[in-house]
Amino acid sequence: TRATAMGLCKSRLGRSMRLREALSTLSDVLVPSEEYYRSGNTAANDIFNILRQYRNDVDRITIGGSMGKRTAISTG
Q1: DSSP code, position 56
Q2: Helix residue ranges per DSSP H, 1-76
Q3: Could you read off the pLDDT of 33-57 as tens digits, one per residue?
């Protein structure tokens, strides 16, 4: 009947809206904030400036890591 069809449409619409809201929340959590990138960039610049100042004292520099994980710096 028409009432049943309307109920199904509202039910699907409700599920769709909940799914859309959940996906939006998930994307907000997964995407790092602008401050995250800015502070990471500042830290990286500070490290490279310090290393540049002491470049004659360091034979080799290895930097490894990835976004969201700890970065290792090895000097030799």
Answers
A1: G
A2: 2-30, 34-53
A3: 888 888 988 988 888 888 888 877 7
| Token pair recorded at residue 30 | 């997964």
Sign of torsion, CA 41 47 48 49? positive
CB 60 within 8 A of CB 76: yes
Structure tokens at 19: 């799914």
- Residue 61 CB partners (closer than 8 Å, separation 6+): 51, 73, 74, 75, 76
Give the angle 66-45-73 at the CA atoms, nearest 5°. 50
The pTM of the full predicted model, rounded to 2 decimals, is: 0.44
